[in-house]
Every structure is written in structure tokens, then in C-alpha cells.
Amino acid sequence: MPNPKRNSIMEGAEKGKDKVVVLDFGGQYSHLIVRRCRDLGVYTELISYDIAIEELKRGIEVEEGEGKIKGIILSGSPFSIHDSSSPKCSYEILDLNIPILGICYGAQLIAYVEGGVVGEGRKAEFGRTELLFKDSELFEGISESGISSYRACDVVGQSPTINVWMSHGDVIERLDGADILGYTRNTPVAAFRINDRIYGVQFHPEVHHTEKGAKILWNFLYKICGCERNWTIESFVRDAIGEIKREVGSDGRVVCGLSGGIDSSTTALLVNKAIGDRLTCIFVDNGLLRKGEKEEVLNTFENNFKMKMLFVDAKERFLNELRGVKDAEAKRRMIGEVFINIFEEEAKKLGNVDFLAQGTIYPDRIESARSGSVASRIKSHHNVGALPEKLGLKLIEPIKNLYKDEVREVAKELNMPPQILNQHPFPGPGLAARVIGEVTEDKLRICREASWIVEEELKQSGWYNKVWQAFAVVGDDVATGVLGDARSLGRIVTIRVVESKEAMTADFVKLPYKVLESMSKRITNEVKGVTWVTYAISSKPPSTIEPC
């Protein structure tokens, strides 16, 4: 189950950084707001909308440089504020002496609390929309975008305009006492200011479709909140190493679950930089690895980085536990439990081990959300959902607040070898996440060999570094084929190739038919027991990247 400490806004290597916090009301772009603010150089955290007002007050009242909250952003939401079940934060937030920016639902919530009129389901706007605005701190420096050719909302005269991205059904129709900063044909109050401290925009400045959206966020962060630039990959690495040193102490010892993927490898390097040979990496061969992965990982970390490695051959143990298990969530939980048990067992053999380091990243925590929260649980990640309530070791997760592309930047800063730095993401449950239904040795063989061919063909065609992730999926479905002029029954292999940036959204890659044809021919010719090859063309959402 998720560690309750993860809900704190004063956690991890960033607890000393001044920050902006984003209250998450379940909007599809909530995580993107965080990313955009970080890209602009300000450390930003996503927290639950129902955070206690006392905790926010504590974060606001601390001294500068001690993790002070400099601003609050209210995210969008799939709900209408008129829904009885719609998420609503403490209204006292608006009384805090701190800048606030409401985006879409967040702006509507502010208007609702302040006594404005929010029309339900009238004059909805979706997609690009022309916004007329007037100069203010929020729109400073973007009035050169042009002059509109029409009037709106009975406002006489012409105003500068920009194209913004709208995605809303309800409309703020009136907000007495507020300074109206922007409007569109259908939205009389598309941007507003209250008391020079509280701002709201009906559009989404965080998406790239909004013209000069980054400049609007920059104005809020620097002009309105008075933030200082404090977020870079270099500063993260320095602070993370320092935090690990403080947490582990001068004589603490750590074991790290090392899979060879970018997340666990980056975690291992960070911990190693902090405490040296007091770290022991445990590499478990669970029988669910990619082709040649065991040899590559052991060679890289034992020989290249001279790190203490403990190899555990647990193939039979994992496969025995997985026998007969078909449900995807059950498989993930089972794999996580066995991993944790092995780490605890090996740590006891080592003696005097206090900490377990894991490569949990931000999307893991989002997708493993607890039932009952605004974010639904998409899938349990083995290093989140399977943690026992009373772990025998204290947990260290130095990259838990990073997105996948940020992890790669950290890895690059740590001089990660190209074979790990540039490899595609690999799920914690290994090939079990790509075997639909029961995990068997035969299905694993097919999945492993077919995935190797997919990656090899992408490398040969120059596509490997252009895509986010590529692999093969195998399930229980079979199809008729013809081998050697004879009827044959074999498994169906599905190729999955996606493009993404932070793994929170993804789209299938439009590969050339020639590349797909070569993959298909090789898989049916070289992988015994396969008769059909298909290509997955679903995006995330509504699908996920990994099938299970």
C-alpha cells in the first residue's frame, strides 16, 4: 500500500526548496502543470485537493529557503462544480495571504466560492479559442500577439488577442468585484483577478496549444509569486545526494533493488554517490527479464561502476508463485510481494541493513492511486502497491517526484552508460506485464524473443531512438497459420510501439509498413509457435502503455 508520508508537501530531497503547489482536482492536465512550472525553473509539487488547511498554513509560514510555499495553483477537473460529488478544497485557501491561480475548474471553483455565477453546461468551449485580454501582471509581455477584429461581452473597443486551449462545459458568466482580464465569444469571464492576489483563467496555459501559455505561467511564478529559479537537474542531483546522506547517516547501510532499468539504475547511482560501498545492490533474476539483460546489468555495475552486487537466482520461485494467476493486478501484487520478501531475506543475511532504495517515479505513484481518491488506480506498480504496512527496512525513493524524462536527465548528469540511458522503459514486473493471462515459460519465451526482434528492427531502421517504448505482447489467443504447406495453430503476437514524453500520455507510432512487415516476417519465421502478428494502435488514454 502507498506510504502515507507521500502525501506530505514537506518531503524528500526537495523539502528545503521554496515551491509552488498544484492542488489536484483530477484534471487530465494536472501533472502537465507541474512539468511546465518545473521547466520554467520553479520546484512544483502536485498534492491532493483535500489537503488539510493547517498543513498548507505551515508550508506558507516557514522562512524563505526552508520549503516555503510561494503560490498555489488549482487544477482542472472532469467534474462540474455543481455536481454533488465534485471535489472541493477548503474554502479557507482563498483567505491565505498567498498568490493563487485557478485553471479551468480551479477558476470556476474560485468564482463559485466568491459568489459568482457559473452557468452549467451552457456555451461550452473545446479546442483552440481566441481570447481577448487586457494588460496585467498575468498577461504582461504578450500584448504584441495581435489585435482582435470583433467585440465581445459588450466591451467596447479592441483588445489584444491570443489563441488559447479551452476544455470546459460550465461557464463563468459573472463575477462581481473582480477585475475581468479576458473574455471570449462564449465566455464573459475567461480570465480574472481578485485583490491583486487571486487569479483565474478558464483556458489551459500549461498545454502547448495555448499561445504564450508558458509566458503566462512564468508571469504567475516570477512576477506574482516572486519565486526564484531553484529547479534544475543539477540542483536536484546535488540535493538528492545530500538528502540521502542525511537520512542514512554516517554508518547506515542500504540495499537497492536493481533491475537494470533506467529508474532503479539511476537510484543506485544516486545512493552510491551519497554513501559509497555502504550500498549493496541486489539484482534478482526473476525469469521475467529481457534477452541478455542479466549479463549486461552485472557487467555494467560490477565492472564499470565497481559497485557491490548481490545476484539472486529466483526464476523458479517467481514462476511457481505466478502459476495459475491470470488477473493482471494479482500478478503485479504477487511479483511485488516476492521481490520485497527477497530483499528482506537478503538484507538479513547481510546484517545491519537499515534501508531499502527503490526506483519509484512519479507516474508510478499517480497510477497506483488509492481507491477513493480523485485519481483512480490504473494499475499497481510493484514498488508502490505491494509495499507491506510494516516494511522491515526504511524506504528511500530519491526519484519519486520525477517524471521519466527527468529521470533520464538525472541519469545523464550521473554519466549513465548509453546502453542503459538510451534503452526503452521496462516495467517493474518485467515480461509479466506483457504476458496476458497466466505467465508460462512458453509465453515468456515468445514474448522475450519477439520483443528482441522488435527492438532490433527499430535499431536497424533508425527508429529506436525516435520512439518512447517498443515491445511485443502475447496472450492466450491463437490463430490458424500455414507452415510448410501444413495447417498450424499458433499464438498471436501484438507489437506495441508508442511515443511519449513523460509516460502519462502516449500515442501509437505510425511506423512505415516496411518496418512493420520486417518485424512480422521475422517473428513468424524465427519465433516458434507464432502464426499471427498484429499492431496495437490505441493511445493512452484510453489504453495504458503496458497491456497489464
Assign the CATH class of the largest domain: Alpha Beta
> Mean pLDDT score, rounded?
85
Content of β-strand: 15-25%
Give a short account of the largest sheet.
9 strands, mixed
Using the 3D structure, state the CATH architecture of the largest domain.
Answer: 3-Layer(aba) Sandwich
Q: Determine the structural class based on helices, strands and strand pairing.
A: alpha/beta
Q: Tell me the count of domains.
A: 3
Radius of gyration: 26 Å
Q: Report the end-to-end length measured between terminal Cα atoms.
A: 19 Å
The overall strand count is: 20
The side-by-side strand order for the widest beta sheet comes to: 2-1-3-4-11-10-9-6-7
CATH topology of the largest domain: Rossmann fold
List the helices and strands and how they pair.
Blueprint: E1 19-24, H1 30-39, E2 44-48, H2 53-61, E3 69-74, E4 100-103, H3 105-113, E5 117-119, E6 125-133, E7 161-168, E8 171-174, E9 179-183, E10 191-194, E11 198-201, H4 213-224, H5 233-248, E12 254-258, H6 262-275, E13 279-285, H7 293-304, E14 308-313, H8 315-322, H9 328-350, E15 355-357, H10 362-367, E16 394-396, H11 404-413, H12 418-421, H13 441-461, E17 469-483, E18 486-499, E19 507-508, H14 513-526, E20 530-535
Parallel strand pairs: 1-2, 1-3, 3-4, 4-11, 12-13, 12-15, 13-14, 15-16, 18-20
Antiparallel strand pairs: 5-8, 6-7, 6-9, 9-10, 10-11, 17-18, 18-19
Helix pairs in contact: 5-6, 5-11, 6-11, 8-9, 13-14
